[in-house]
Structure formats: structure tokens, C-alpha cells
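sry for the spam today, last one i promise. C-alpha cells for design, 116 residues
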């Protein structure tokens, strides 16, 4: 085997070894036995400092916000469904458009009137 062939073969072997190592994930291992331990006394002291009334107040606010969001979304969905159903009949759709045009024309006329 010539020297250029040997070099090419070595480079290929190294490439395959690196690809194999990366694909298996063996290059990154976490040693869970050497992680720092948190003592039970520290955890008990931390829990003792928690103000449960403040936690409940914040929890109440979040739940209220979530309820408002869900109720609004449900109402919007219902309203969109009702509007689609109303506009699904061509005659009704044209009648609604006529009323809207008339109101828009009245608003436009009022906007062009000179006010003192």
C-alpha cells in the first residue's frame, strides 16, 4: 500500500470512528453519582419560608386569566359560527350588506358636514 493510500484510509477510518461515536452519543455521559446533593434540612428550611397565601394569590390570578382567555375564545368561536350561518344565505347576506352600506353612507355624510 502506498503512502497516499494509507493516509486516505486512515482519514476515512478516523471519520467513521468519529461519526460512530457521535451517533451513539457516548461522547456525552453524565455521571449522576457525582452530582451535588441537596440536604434534607435545606429543603425543609426552604419550604418553611414559602408563604402559601402569596402562592395561592398568584395561583388564583393565573387561573382567572386562563379562564378569561378560554371563555373569550369560546365566545369568539360561537360568534364566528353564528356569523357564518347568517351569511350562508345569499339573500340574507345581501340584506345585511345593504343595511351596512346605508349606515356607512350616513356616517360618511355626517363626517363631511361642517361643524362650528
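last one done:
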Amino acid at each position: 500500500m502506498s503512502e497516499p493510500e494509507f493516509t486516505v484510509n486512515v482519514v476515512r477510518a478516523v471519520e467513521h470512528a468519529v461519526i460512530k461515536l457521535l451517533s451513539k452519543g457516548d461522547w456525552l455521559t453524565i455521571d449522576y453519582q457525582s452530582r451535588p446533593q441537596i440536604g434534607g434540612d435545606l429543603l425543609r428550611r426552604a419550604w418553611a419560608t414559602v408563604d402559601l397565601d402569596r402562592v395561592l394569590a398568584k395561583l388564583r390570578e393565573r387561573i382567572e386569566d386562563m379562564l378569561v382567555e378560554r371563555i373569550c375564545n369560546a365566545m369568539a368561536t360561537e360568534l364566528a359560527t353564528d356569523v357564518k350561518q347568517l351569511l350562508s344565505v345569499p339573500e340574507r347576506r345581501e340584506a345585511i350588506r345593504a343595511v351596512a352600506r346605508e349606515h356607512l353612507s350616513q356616517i360618511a355624510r355626517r363626517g363631511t358636514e361642517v361643524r362650528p
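Residues 16 and 87 are 65 Å apart (CA to CA). ok im logging off now
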